[in-house]
Amino acid sequence: MKKTLILSSLLCLSMLHADNNVTSQISKKQEGVKYIKMLGKTLKTHLKSEMKADKTGLKAVDFCTTKADELTKEINSQLPKGVTVRRTALKTRTDKNKPDTLDSAVMESIINDMDKKNVNLAKPLMVETPSVYRVYKPLFITPACMKCHGNEKSIHPDVQKVITKNYPNDKAMNFQLGDLRGVVVAEINK
Ligand code: HEC
User: Given ligand 1 and candidates 44, 72, 93, which is best to mutate, with the most ligand atoms within 8 Å of its CB?
Assistant: First the structure.
């Protein structure tokens, strides 16, 4: 009798623990999404207005080349201690945005899921390691991305020039509509 009581209270405790864990995972995911939106929104708003101002994409590519990194740093300086947000991809334009092993594994698994039905690909994913939570938001190629990440033959020659000059190691061209371009990653230290 006593034994059962102990066992059941132990079970209760572990369930409680599991519950706490799930709750904290959900709130960390929401927190990560908030940081991802901060970076995403800032970059998108700037990109949109630069593209509107000059349809060739030349002004916008100047913006991306000189300001994307700066704005990312600025957003990070506003985040709580132990939190970072960044963009990465399997095929990067600049080595500064190179993925680590976990980033690559997550992106490979997203690409795998793209062949499956009933998977909501736009949904952010949460990955937990012993030291951090990471939230990943996939970015897919839309028509707006094609002027700088599309077929190299259809990219405006002036835009092409800026890209070649600034990114000698560029791998982020020749994407097609709907391809996974990369991810935005929020990392929260435990
Ligand atoms: C006007 C040109 C331009 C357009 C349009 C554009 N990008 Fe980029 N993109 C760049 C440049 C330049 C960089 C490198 C920025 C840097 O130096 O940090 C870049 C970098 C990135 C990166 C970071 C990873 C890497 O390769 O270094 C991601 C992710 C990305 N772009 C996604 C997109 C998506 C998604 C769209 C469409 C919604 C898009 N871009 C539209 C020019 C552009």
Answer: 93
